[in-house]
Amino acid sequence: MDPDAVCRTVLNEIEECLSQIKQMPLPPFPVYENTNKAAAYISYRLKEYDSVAYYLSEAHGGGIRSKLSLIMNPDTASKKELNDCLSLNSEYVTKRYHGLVERLKEMPSEWTIIQITKNYNPKDVVTPRPTDKPTDVSELFISRYQCGQKHKNIEPLTVKVDKPKTSLGQKTIFEVLKKSLEDTNDRQNKDPSAIRNLRDSASQSIKNISQEIHTSWIKHWICMLLGNYIDEKLSAEVYSVIDNVIEQENMSISDRGRMILYQITNAVVQLTNDEINNILKEVDCSPEDMNKFEFAINKYKLNGSHLMLKKRHSVLLILDEHLECLPWETMPCLRRHPVSRVSSIHIVHRLYHKHKDSIQNGLMKIKNQGYYILNPDKSLSNAEKRMASFLKERNVNWDGIQSQEPTSEQFSSLLKKNSILLYCGHGNGTQYLHSLDLDKLDLQCIPMLFGCSSAKHTDKGGRSNFVGASYGYLKAGCPCVIGMLWNVTSLDADNSARAMLNVWLPGNPINLQEKWPKEFLDQQDYPIERELLRSLAIARKTTRSFFNYAALVARGIPVIMTD
Q1: 28-57 as b/e, with b when 16 or more CB fall inside 10 Å?
Q2: What is the CA radius of gyration of the chain?
Q3: GO terms for CC (predicted)?
Q4: Using a CB cutoff of 8 Å and minimum separation of 24, what contacts does 13-22 make?
Q5: How is the beta sheet containing 359-360 ordered, strand by strand?
Q6: Averaged pLDDT for residues 172-198
Q7: Of 131, 239, 313, 388, which residue is the least packed, with the fewest Cβ within 10 Å?
Q8: Is 170 exposed, middle or buried (0-12, 13-18, 19+ CB in 10 A)?
């Protein structure tokens, strides 16, 4: 029997399953996501790339979409509009690929959404996961979704990344990460020297993982991960280098081939010649045409050394739940640029609709109206002193509390009344506000959670979605959440917080190394940086350990401070 015919038969059966899931009052989202992965895998084999883009977009976000399914009757039209962004039965989903494109066109053209999805594995559907077992390194799909209507000829692009080859007995990056986190969290170890050595070792392991994601796994497809240049002339050149060759040589090339070539020129200074050649092999053209593209690209690269330092627009990074634990932002190609994590296109779309009146040039405007909570359980007295001293020196005129636990009503009120909530304590603050109460709130606030594992998504095992406090904050409407992927040392958490606020808040930054030389060891510049995601890159540099450097992440949409 024809293999394509078999694939189409199976795909029809999968579609029937998806249709039944959508009709359930409480859909099993992990099953829905895995079924969409299966559909994407088969569609990729059939080279139906529009369907691949749609199915993969539906394979994410179950952790936050499941919260919506509990809301049966939204009480206002605006809430219904927001909930439609997440619903399995909205027009966007019913229209499939065309609905996906509609979502993308509604959002700012400055945003590029990059989605990284683990390939379908039938075991994920039928086998409950143990909570303490690291995930396997597997095939990936990388999808690039360009938002807005500015780039007329840009379509969603998906590529498949092969499973990396590993030597027998060699630990995977997930196993190395798990051991590093366990070593640094060992409460039984009281020897300061041994603890320091373990942290140094963990720091080197995280640095190696950051590099290995590129060299051993993503490889040449790092070209898919970069945002567009802010400079419109440079952005136009990315396309014209390729378009000129096609027009001058009167070539016939598929839209997919053109999209792949654009990725090369957009990332050309980040790619080696071997990586460029490997990408070119994915383009459906003759050897003669490939040589012409290679010549034009190499000429562009030769004259493009200045491109390495050019600013780029934000990347919104959608990660498979099993890939969330990795430090993607610290990859060399992303380290300098603004990156924020989001759970799915649906969540980005919902946040855009909620805050669109405050969004200009792809940035949501935030007022300097903040509140701080320092050391609420009285166990971090040094951290309290460091942060209080900084807020005073930097003339941050916020109200706040120190060495005092907020009540649930107070914590809820602070989130509702303020644009920024700075939390320097243990965890993510939800010990003071139950997740069910958080779900009921309608917020505009940015929680800055400088506590251990405050932005972590936790695997509870079984067949459930991962869980995390950031789901609740984003579901409540918070445009962005700042936090830590894992446990960090108190001093580096405080350094990150101070450096970030120093350059981001209105007024002139102060010299942190001059004020606190024993805490900020390296002299560095503190330029004014009103874009929050860019300020994180400055904040990370003040950490003493790469382990702590890599823990700081943002979740949500790009924001900018207004003076």
Answers
A1: bbbbbbbbbbbbbbbbbeeebbbbbbbbbb
A2: 24
A3: cytoplasm; mitotic spindle; nucleus
A4: 14/38, 14/39, 14/42, 15/39, 21/88, 22/88, 22/89, 22/93
A5: 359-360, 363-366, 559-561
A6: 82
A7: 131
A8: exposed
Residue 347 token pair: 């969540």
For 122-159, b/e burial (b = at least 16 CB within 10 A) is: eebeeeebeeeebbebbebbbbbbbbbeebeebbbbbb
Which is more confident, 413 or 200? Answer: 413
- Say whether pTM exceeds 0.85: yes
d(Cα 291, Cα 396) in Å, to the nearest integer? Answer: 58
Nearest of 298, 297, 296, 336 to residue 315 by alpha carbon: 336
Distance CA(15)–CA(11), nearest Å, equals: 6
Predicted local confidence at residue 184, as pLDDT: 82
Question: To 10 degrees, the CA torsion angle through 71, 74, 75, 76?
Answer: 150
Question: Which among 299, 289, 290, 291 is positioned nearest to 265, based on CA atoms?
Answer: 299
Give the pLDDT score at 63: 77
- Give the SS3 label for residue 503: helix
Tell me the C-alpha to C-alpha distance, in Å, between residue 422 and each of 332, 369, 387, 445: 29, 11, 10, 10
Alpha-carbon distance values, 151 to 7, 76, 278, 340, 419 (Å): 34, 34, 26, 22, 33
Calculate ∠ Cα 488-493-494, nearest 5°.
Answer: 150
Per-chain mean pLDDT for the chain: 91
In tens, the pLDDT along 417-460 reads: 999 999 999 999 989 998 888 888 999 999 999 999 999 998 88
Four-CA torsion 146, 152, 153, 158, nearest 10 degrees: 10
Across 377-386, average pLDDT: 95
Residue, of 475 and 261, whose pLDDT is higher: 261
For 158, the 3-state DSSP assignment is: strand
**Strand ranges (DSSP E) for 377-429?**
399-402, 420-424
Q: What is the DSSP string of 257-294?
A: HHHHHHHHHHTGGG--HHHHHHHHTTS-S-HHHHHHHH
492: number of Cβ within 10 Å: 22
Burial label, 494 (beta-carbon count in 10 A; 0-12, 13-18, 19+): buried
Angle formed by the axes of helices 532-540 and 490-504, nearest 10°: 140
- Give strand pairing partners of 341: 317, 555
Q: What is the pLDDT of residue 25?
A: 86
Q: Is pLDDT above 70 for 70?
A: no
CB 114 within 8 A of CB 225: yes
Question: What pLDDT is stored for residue 72 in this prediction?
Answer: 44
pLDDT digits (tens, 9 = 90+) for 311-357: 999 999 999 999 999 999 999 999 999 999 999 999 999 999 999 99
**CA-based max dimension of the chain:** 75
Q: Which two tokens stand for residue 58?
A: 């539906």
**Whose CA is closest to 352, among 92, 56, 154, 142?**
92
The HSE-up count of residue 280 (CA atoms within 13 Å, CB side) is 23
